[in-house]
Design a protein that fits this description.
The chain is mostly helical. It has two domains: 60 residues; 169 residues, no CATH class. The chain has eight helices and no strands. Helix 1 packs antiparallel against helix 2 and helix 4 crosses helix 5. The chain is elongated.
C-alpha cells in the first residue's frame, strides 16, 4: 500500500463532492416602496412593473398568481409614494413663493387683532366700573365683537390657506372678478371651519408659523371659554385685571413693539 492511499476506515470522513443542480429561472421578487427613492427612480419602477404586469399578447410565460399580487401591491405603493412626493414638492414651492407676502399680511392682521382686543378690554373695564352701561356703549361693544371676529377670520385665512392653491393676497385690491370671488369663497370656508373647530393644525405652514413665534392661528373655542372667566377675574384682580399692576393695554403695546422688531430682511 502506498503512502498516499486512504485507509478504508477513513473513507466515510472524506466529504463527497457536491453535484451541481441545474439553475432554474426564478421570478423576480417585488421590492417594497422606499422613501429614499427619488421621483425618477419611482417612475422607472412604476414603468417596469407596469410592463411586467401587462405583457404583450405574444408572451408565452405568465406570472404566478401570488407573484402578480405582490407586484400589484408594490406598484400601488410606488404610485402612492410618488404622489406624496409630488404633493410635498408643490407645497414647498408655493410656500417659498408666497412666504414674504404672507409674512407681512400675518403681521398686519396680528396687530389689527391686538388693537381691537385692547379697545374691547378698555371698554369692558369702563362698563364694569360704572353702575350701568348706556345703549351707546353696548352698541359699540357689539360692533367691536364683530370686528374682532372678522380680524380672527383674516388671521386664520393667512395661517390656514389651502396649501396646494396659489395664495390670493387678503389686502390687495384691483384683482379680477374671479380672483375676488375665490378669495371670498376661501374666506367663508375658513370661517365655517372656525365655527366647527376643524381648522387643521398639522400642516407645514402652521409649524413654520409656530417656529417664527406667531402661534397656530386663532383658537375661537378657547377664546370664547376664556371670555367669561376673564370678566370675573377683572373684579378680583383690580381695574385692569392684572395682578402685576400693569394694564392690559400697556401689556399689548409691549407685545406689538416686540412683533415690530423682527429685524433682518423683513424689517419694515
Amino acid at each position: 500500500m502506498s503512502s498516499t492511499a486512504i485507509h478504508p476506515s477513513r473513507l466515510s470522513q472524506i466529504p463527497r463532492p457536491k453535484t451541481k443542480t441545474p439553475n432554474r429561472p426564478k421570478p423576480p421578487k417585488p421590492q417594497p416602496a422606499s422613501t429614499s427613492l427619488t421621483r425618477s427612480q419611482l417612475r422607472k419602477k412604476i414603468r417596469d412593473l407596469t410592463r411586467l404586469l401587462n405583457p404583450p399578447s405574444s408572451a408565452t410565460t405568465k406570472l404566478p398568481a401570488t407573484t402578480r399580487i405582490d407586484h400589484e401591491r408594490a406598484l400601488s405603493a410606488y404610485k402612492h409614494e410618488l404622489s406624496l412626493q409630488q404633493t410635498s414638492s408643490k407645497v414647498q414651492l408655493l410656500e417659498k413663493r408666497y412666504h414674504k407676502v404672507r409674512f407681512f399680511e400675518r403681521r398686519k392682521a396680528t396687530r389689527a387683532l391686538s388693537r381691537l382686543n385692547r379697545e374691547f378690554n378698555a371698554l369692558d373695564n369702563n362698563n364694569n366700573n360704572t353702575s350701568s352701561a348706556d345703549e351707546e356703549s353696548k352698541k359699540e361693544k357689539e360692533g367691536l365683537i364683530k370686528k374682532i371676529h372678522a380680524a380672527e377670520v383674516d388671521l386664520n385665512y393667512i395661517m390656514h390657506y389651502p396649501p396646494l392653491e396659489k395664495y390670493i393676497s387678503l389686502y390687495r385690491s384691483g384683482d379680477s372678478k374671479d380672483t375676488n370671488q375665490k378669495r371670498v369663497r376661501i374666506r367663508q370656508d375658513i370661517e365655517k371651519r372656525m365655527e366647527e373647530g376643524t381648522l387643521d393644525r398639522g400642516d407645514a405652514l402652521v409649524e413654520a408659523n409656530a417656529a417664527e413665534g406667531f402661534g397656530g392661528g386663532v383658537d375661537v373655542k378657547n377664546k370664547k371659554k376664556n371670555n367669561g372667566s376673564n370678566n370675573n377675574n377683572n373684579k378680583k384682580q383690580g381695574h385692569d385685571g392684572n395682578k402685576n399692576g400693569k394694564s392690559i393695554s400697556d401689556k399689548n403695546e409691549d407685545e406689538d413693539e416686540d412683533e415690530g422688531s423682527d429685524g433682518g430682511f423683513f424689517e419694515l
